Amino acid sequence: MNNSFCSGSVSLSVVVPCYDEEATLPLFYEEMLKQISSLIEIGALEEYEFIFADDGSKDSTTSIIRELAGRDDRVRYIILSRNFGKEAAIFAGLQKASGAYVVVMDADLQDPPSLVPRMLEAVFSGAFDCAGTRRVTRNGEPPIRSFFARNFYRFMAKLSDIEVVDGARDFRLMNRMYIDAVLSLQERNRFSKGIFPWVGFKTKWFEYENVNRVAGETKWSFWKLLLYSLNGITAFSSKPLAFASICGMIAFIISLAFIVFIVIRRIIWGDPVAGWASTICIILLVSGIQLFSIGIIGQYLAKTYTEVKQRPHFIVREQN
Ligand code: UDP
Ligand code: MG
């Protein structure tokens, strides 16, 4: 761990995953720096650092980060060799962060820097280990996306034993104990919305109205989000496997009942050949259940495969 901060001081690391954020990054830096300066002025903060994790940007984000680092020695960066996804970028930034407190923020100002002082206060007081944020509105988001997002949180809460809070953002301020706990989870299929509640501790929630991006566009397509949520389910719940077993069991019981029915019908009416249509229906139904169950098992197998390969979470091209 880098010990650039004097121990005992109130030091804050601002971890920012960036992927093609040339339009927003300079604005974010200015805004956040204003907040930090006022915190330093009132003596609430002594040291700070920015950690920009460049997740394989294809635009000029990388050179903007280098330029910021050139004029502000509190700016540190880690440039990944390609796009590894937001989760990997956050993980890279968290590993690099050396502050006693760390806040994870998006580069697009959707996570209001004005909330940071209250979040820092909550965690610094010692009453909480983490300050989390949740959006209470989703204005400006396509309605279909809001609908699926809301239901995903409900579904996830039912499926897993962890508490996934509706509208929870990755915008969090944590103390060292909490960060070290998050870093100790070495899994490759990282799903922050599950990892954060999984580690436990005390979290204070801050609510805010949705803010639109200052510039640029979201990197999440509907399909990317759907895959991300499926990943979240397999990462934090094994209930789909139980569901597959239950489907199998129900199909087995129905087939037993059917065998009894056919045997009795044969004895009474002696007509074993009739029922072609029902046979086809049953074959289709049962093979459907089988394929569905194999699919579920396959999802877990694929996740296990990526875990056992033990590949690094990301590859670094350059860092300061
Ligand atoms: N991001 C990233 N890697 C990716 C996608 C996104 O590091 O593959 C970053 C992005 O630069 C931003 C944050 O993650 O700082 C959130 O992304 P975005 O604003 O596109 O998501 P949304 O706010 O729409 O959920
Ligand atoms: Mg955003």
* Shape designation: elongated
Low-confidence stretches: 1-8
Distance between the termini: 14 Å
Computed over alpha carbons, the radius of gyration is 25 Å
Helix content: 40-55%
Number of helices: 10
Largest sheet, in brief, is:
8 strands, mixed
Number of strands: 8
**H-E string:** EHEHEHEHEHEHHEHHHE
Report strand order across the widest sheet: 7-5-6-4-1-2-3-8
Could you explain how this protein is built, in words?
With 320 residues, the protein is an alpha/beta fold. The chain has helices at 25-41, 61-71, 86-96, 116-124, 143-159, 176-184, 192-199, 222-236, 239-269, 276-308, and strands at residues 11-18, 47-54, 75-80, 101-104, 130-135, 168-175, 203-208, 316-319. The protein has an 8-stranded mixed beta sheet with strand order 7-5-6-4-1-2-3-8, sandwiched between helices. α1 (25-41) links the parallel β1 and β2 (47-54). α5 (143-159) packs parallel to α8 (222-236) and α9 (239-269) runs antiparallel to α10. Magnesium ion is lined by residues 106, 108, 110, 213, 218.
Could you name the key traits of this structure?
320 residues, alpha/beta, 8-stranded mixed beta sheet, 10 helices, 50% helix, 16% strand, elongated, binds uridine-5'-diphosphate, binds magnesium ion
In short:
This protein has 10 helices and 8 strands. With 320 residues, it is of the alpha/beta class.
Itemize the secondary structure elements and their pairings.
Elements: E1 11-18, H1 25-41, E2 47-54, H2 61-71, E3 75-80, H3 86-96, E4 101-104, H4 116-124, E5 130-135, H5 143-159, E6 168-175, H6 176-184, H7 192-199, E7 203-208, H8 222-236, H9 239-269, H10 276-308, E8 316-319
Helix pairs in contact: 5-8, 9-10
The structure holds uridine-5'-diphosphate and magnesium ion (MG).
Magnesium ion (MG) is lined by residues 106, 108, 110, 213, 218.
